[in-house]
Every structure is written in C-alpha cells, then in structure tokens.
C-alpha cells in the first residue's frame, strides 16, 4: 500500500468560488492527497443532460448561458484567468456545437461527449485556482487511463487496463505535482468519451484509489458523513461514525445517493478505507467505511430509491414448468435490464426494475420492444411510480422480532411487495412513490430515534 490519498469533491464542493476555495483548503491540509477527482460544478451536468436531450434554439441558448454564468462566476475570481478563459470559451463553443447536433438527432455517444464538458471545465478552473495559491497543480485528462466498454451512459471500466495505464501515465506525475482530474468520464476503445452513470465521480475516485493502491479514498460532499438515512428526508437522522463495506455497499445499492452504487467495489477489492465528510466543515468529522467495525448493530440505516417499476408476469405455463424463469431473465438481460427484487408464486412472478437506472442518458429501459417480447410469453402488468425502501442491517434474517418492529408501524401504508431473507443485510419494501418519504420517516422514528 502507498501513502497516497485520493480525494474526490462532488458538485456542491466545486459549485462556486467559495466552495472551490474550501475544497482547496481541504486538499492542502493533507500532504498525502496526491490525486484530486472532481465532479462538474453543481447544476452543470443537469443542464448538459437537458441539452443532450435536444432543445429548441431559445432554450438551448438559455441553458448554455446558465452554464457560462456558473463557470464565469468562478473564473472571474481568478487573478490570471486569460488562458483558462480561452479554454472555457472553447469548451462552451464545443457545447454549443454538440447541442445543435443533439437537437437534430440524439444519441447516447453524443450525450456522453456533451456531458463530459462539465468535469472538464470544473477541473480546469480548480487547477487555475490552486496555481493562484502557488500550488504546483497539474490537469490530467482521466480519459487517457479510464478505459471503458462502449455502453454509453453507464460504461464499465476495464480495471486491468486502468491499472496498467495509471502506472504508466498517472503514477509518475505524482512525485512532482498535485494531479487534478475528472470523475465520471472515461473513453472506449475507439477513443470516444463515455460516462460511468450519474454520480459516477465517487466510482472514479475509488477506481483510481485501487489503481494507485491508495491508503484511503476521501469523498468530500455536502454532508459530514453517512447518516442513518438521508438527512434531507429525516432531519433527525444520525451520523454513522464507522460502517463496514458490506453495509455501506447495500446502502449505496439501495439508493443512498451519498455514494454511487459501485464505489465500494474497488475499495473492497484492495481493502481501501473510504472516508466521507463535508468539504464545508471538516471539523464536523465524517464516516469511515472500512473492513472491520466493532459490533455492527441489527438496524443500521434506511435507504430510499424512487422511480421503481413493478412488472408482474402471469402465465399458466409456469405451473410445474421448467425454464420459464430462465426465458424471462434472458429477455431482460438482452435488453440490458437488471432485476432488483423478485417474488414468485405458482403462476406469476413479480419483479422490480430500476428502469431509469443511473444512466446518464435518462431514457427509460422499459421499452415497447421489451414489453412485446415478454407479452409473447405471458400476461404482463406494469406498475410505475413505486419506491423501494430498504432497511439495511446485520443478521436481519436471523434475528427475532424484526417483522414486528418493521411492519407494526407500517399499518397505514400499502406495502406492494416485500423481499426478506435472501440477504441478512437488508429487508426491502416496495411502496407507492407518494408514500415513500412518510414510510421512511415512520420507520426511522421507530427504529433509530
Ligand atoms: P455530491 O455532489 O457531493 O456527490 P450527492 O448529492 O451526490 O453529493 O450526495 C450527497 C447527498 O446524499 C446528501 O446531500 C444527502 O441528501 C444524500 N443522502 C442520501 N442518503 C444519505 C445518507 N444515508 N447519508 C447522508 N447523505 C445521504
Ligand atoms: N457530474 C456527474 C453527475 O452529476 C457525476 C458526479 O457528480 O458524480 O452525475
Ligand atoms: Mg454524488
């Protein structure tokens, strides 16, 4: 293991000049930080995604001006900004050209190329800000080493290639300079830009941590750590000081936005602790996600994932049949859909799909082509706007009384589906979208307050 710390700053931590200066203070306070991974300034990725979906000329101009405004506000506080202003202007020109193309025909590859400009711009500005503070900072294009497949919008990195290229191109720079690079983006074999899915900068930081064999990955965001649930939903949520990889990974998978779902995979592979804290208030401390935790509690946290779709498939052919489920799953796999929860009965199967997923291209995966294929096999019912509430904990499936503690207080709600027992780390409930926050508040009150 090296002494390197990889530090990642999310959108709000690079939103404006004050936030960027706070983040710079965080970086400079720890000489072990050698690589800094940045998201786009808050709001920029959403604007770019909207442009990539195709806009009329007026709306296009309005959105590009909004992006220009966000970046210029930072730029205008920098002392020697001429060179970087030219670069930002060039990026804005690219954005204009690509947005015009998107208004004629959208494509996933074009979307990724367009949205990558958010991270490209925030890193350029941050390098300049550090240089104005006499830091030897170097801008590094992560696409040179973050090689991925060509699943635009949610590309998967090739870890072996990343490790090899990082050793060749990134590692040697760390002796002399502080490297500033982009989260979220990568490139496929033909060199075209890809993205790792919304919120993917956390994943980038962990992947670089793995490639550099870092001693820790620090995720700096707008809350001082991981809480028992989203503090925006439950202001009474409590900070978790230390949490195991598995529990935190379950939280991320089931929608705790604080970490991109894949973040902990590289961290687990190399046993790299991940710290989560607030760039606005370092003294508030944070959460350490690591291998060992003392006495993990029965109930750890609640996570919420919105926009879930429930597919119920009915067929009498399922009765005593073999291979029916395999056929269904083959169809889903061929449409790139991953299934979350499943319940089965004799003649029907219910599955939940995260149809929007976290892909950068916001189109739903539940296409008419998929429904047509499934309908050839069985009767298909689709229910949308559901939410998945996951209770994360330890030994949940073995403990007594879990059912009573959980369901006892949920009497006023319609629980559409339950998944319990497959993992001793979670109990999942599917509820109507409009009830979701109420369910989380009720459960949190009963289990954590
Ligand atoms: P960043 O831009 O820094 O990546 P995100 O918005 O992606 O930040 O993630 C931070 C947000 O995650 C917090 O503001 C909070 O609302 C939300 N969040 C969801 N679940 C949790 C949780 N269990 N603990 C803390 N924050 C959470
Ligand atoms: N900027 C990207 C997003 O908004 C990636 C990230 O913030 O992690 O999804
Ligand atoms: Mg995030």
TrEMBL record:
GO CC annotations on file: cytosol
> Which controlled-vocabulary keywords does the entry list?
Amino-acid biosynthesis, ATP-binding, Kinase, Lysine biosynthesis, Nucleotide-binding, Transferase
Q: Name the protein family.
A: Belongs to the aspartokinase family.
Identify the residues that the record assigns to the ACT domain, covering every copy. 313-385
Q: Name one GO molecular function term.
A: aspartate kinase activity
Protein name as it appears in the record:
Aspartokinase
Might you give the EC number(s) for this enzyme?
2.7.2.4
Q: Which residues of the sequence carry a binding annotation for substrate?
A: 45, 119
Q: Which reaction does it catalyse?
A: L-aspartate + ATP = 4-phospho-L-aspartate + ADP
Q: Which residues take part in binding ATP? A: 8-11, 221-222, 227, 232
Swiss-Prot/TrEMBL GO biological process terms: homoserine biosynthetic process; lysine biosynthetic process via diaminopimelate; threonine biosynthetic process
Q: In which pathway does it act?
A: Amino-acid biosynthesis; L-threonine biosynthesis; L-threonine from L-aspartate: step 1/5; Amino-acid biosynthesis; L-methionine biosynthesis via de novo pathway; L-homoserine from L-aspartate: step 1/3; Amino-acid biosynthesis; L-lysine biosynthesis via DAP pathway; (S)-tetrahydrodipicolinate from L-aspartate: step 1/4
Q: Which SUPFAM superfamilies match?
A: ACT-like (SSF55021), Carbamate kinase-like (SSF53633)
Q: Which domain of life is it from?
A: Bacteria
């Amino acid at each position: 293991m090296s002494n390197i710390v990889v530090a990642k700053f999310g959108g709000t931590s690079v939103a404006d000049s004050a936030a960027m200066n706070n983040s710079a203070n965080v970086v400079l306070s720890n000489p072990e930080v050698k690589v800094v991974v940045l998201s786009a300034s808050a709001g920029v990725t959403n604007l770019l995604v909207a442009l990539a979906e195709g806009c009329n000329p007026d709306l296009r101009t309005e959105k590009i001006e909004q992006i220009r405004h966000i970046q210029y506000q930072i730029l205008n506080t920098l002392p020697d900004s001429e060179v970087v202003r030219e670069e930002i202007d060039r990026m804005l020109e690219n954005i204009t050209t690509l947005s015009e193309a998107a208004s004629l025909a959208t494509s996933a590859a074009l979307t990724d190329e367009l949205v990558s400009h958010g991270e490209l711009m925030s890193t350029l500005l941050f390098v300049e800000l550090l240089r104005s503070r006499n830091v030897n900072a170097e801008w590094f294009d992560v696409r040179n080493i973050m090689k991925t497949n060509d699943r635009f919008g949610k590309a998967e990195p090739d870890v072996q290639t990343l490790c090899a290229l990082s050793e060749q191109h990134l590692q040697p720079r760390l002796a002399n300079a502080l490297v500033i690079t982009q989260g979220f983006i990568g490139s496929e074999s033909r060199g075209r830009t890809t993205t790792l899915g919304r919120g993917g900068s956390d994943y980038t930081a962990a992947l670089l941590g793995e490639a550099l064999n870092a001693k820790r990955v620090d995720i700096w965001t707008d809350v001082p750590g991981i809480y028992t649930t989203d503090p925006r939903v439950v202001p009474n949520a409590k900070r978790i000081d230390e949490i195991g990889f598995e529990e935190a990974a379950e939280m991320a998978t089931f929608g705790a936005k604080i970490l991109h779902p894949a973040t902990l995979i590289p961290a687990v592979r190399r046993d790299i602790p991940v710290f989560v804290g607030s760039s606005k208030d370092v003294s508030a401390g944070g959460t350490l996600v690591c291998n060992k935790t003392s006495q993990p509690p029965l109930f750890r946290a609640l996570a919420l994932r919105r926009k879930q779709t429930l597919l119920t498939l009915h067929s009498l052919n399922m009765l005593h049949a073999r291979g029916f489920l395999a056929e269904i799953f083959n169809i889903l796999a061929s449409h790139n859909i991953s299934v979350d929860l499943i319940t089965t009965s004799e003649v029907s199967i219910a599955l939940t799909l995260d149809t929007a997923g976290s892909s950068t291209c916001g189109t739903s995966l539940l296409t008419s082509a998929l429904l047509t294929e499934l309908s050839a096999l069985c009767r298909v019912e689709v229910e949308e706007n559901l939410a998945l509430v996951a209770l994360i904990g330890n030994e949940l499936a073995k403990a007594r009384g879990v059912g009573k503690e959980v369901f006892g207080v949920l009497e006023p709600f319609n629980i559409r589906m339950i998944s319990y027992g497959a993992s001793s780390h979670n109990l999942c409930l599917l509820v109507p979208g409009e009830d979701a926050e109420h369910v989380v508040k009720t459960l949190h009150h009963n289990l954590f307050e």
